Amino acid sequence: MIKRASCAATVLAALALAPPATAQAAGNGPLSLAGVHPSGATYAIEVPRDWNGTVLSFTPGYGQGAGPEHRPAELGGDAASRAWLLAHGYALAGTRPYGDGWAVEESLRASAETLATFAKAAGEPEMTLAWGASMGGAIAAGLAELRPDLIDGALPYCASVAGPVAMLNQSLDAAFAFKTLLAPGEDAIKLVRLASAEEEARSTAAAREVLEAAQQTAQGRARIALAAAFAQVSTWSVPDTPEPAPHDWEGQQAQEYAAFMATVFSPRHPLEQRAGGNFSWNTGVDYRKQLRESGRERQVRALYERAGLDLDADLAALAKAPRVAADPEAVAYMEDYFTPRGRLGVPVLTLHERGDNYPTVTQARAYADAVKRAGKGPLLRQAYVDRPGHCRYTGAEFAAAVETLRDRVATGHWKDTHAHGLGRLAARLADADPGLGSAQFTDHRPGRFLRPHVPR
Question: Whole-model pTM?
Fold first, then answer.
């Protein structure tokens, strides 16, 4: 078994372990299990006949809880990559937490329950890798910091690795600019402290109505672009569309508009309920500086000039507008569940689409910066694919990423994680199994995340 460091975190010290549905010694596969933990979380386990000793533990994204109906757990990746992994000796384990929404607290515990169940049923693995999609990727990143005794490596993909505080601050900045400049008297649009799901639905509907009207005018489009710059909404957001040219300001704005509502007005009420209050703020934020550092100033200025608007006047209006303060206890909860501090205990390989917004790809940069500040940079590598959209990876991309991480854990050294190295590996795997499809790895360095938050 890979030697693991002891866990310094105390938030997950006590775990209720579920008994397996059946018990079977390792090496006697194939084995297929599914069940429900005492917590209400569901699990699924697949062990191939020729198990190579490695298990991949998966957690799904936001809003994919098991619920009272005990929805079955998933195993991660896509159908092609799962078939390839099982055929090449990998075991798969999946956990679906009972809690819904931002169920990070439950997911961290339930993942440990599933791995304990796996060990009882199939035998202790030689290597355990955590992977997850979107919020599930945040779980994988959380395990890499909080439970290095439990896993040997992590593969967060399309993951919110900047953490919920930074992610929702980013959304607040854009929503604040949007309301201040395009709907200053619209009380139905609430930025924080939403009292109910119904109030959030009314707020979102009102914001969408304002957005649709604004998109019909040059002035409205310019102000949407300014707000989108604060949230770092991708200028290439729509799947299966060509990327706008570098100076195609209108084409870029159309892509930002398409992703604006889902990025800026993403669900907030369920997260505030879980945290016990509002965990977002914009007190002290200099929006003139934010625009300058966003990488979008040229686009925004060009659109303002074409619309005949005064950008300096709008930035001054933002500077004078009343700000939003956070509730410290709510911030503390979201720091615990889970905001990365960068203190990796195991190797981590992240995977992001260059045009992702849910989270924005700049979250990858925030994560890398946190890891570097914590002195753990050698444990982290980051890979990117050249397309817009969220969690739309091919089997070849998944397989290459898993093989790369497994090799790093086994040897202690990273192989080539640049686009050409990962691309060669993916092509070789796909040559042997065309069902994996092709890969579109690209070398990319995201712009700096504007509002990073790393707990002290």
Answer: 0.93
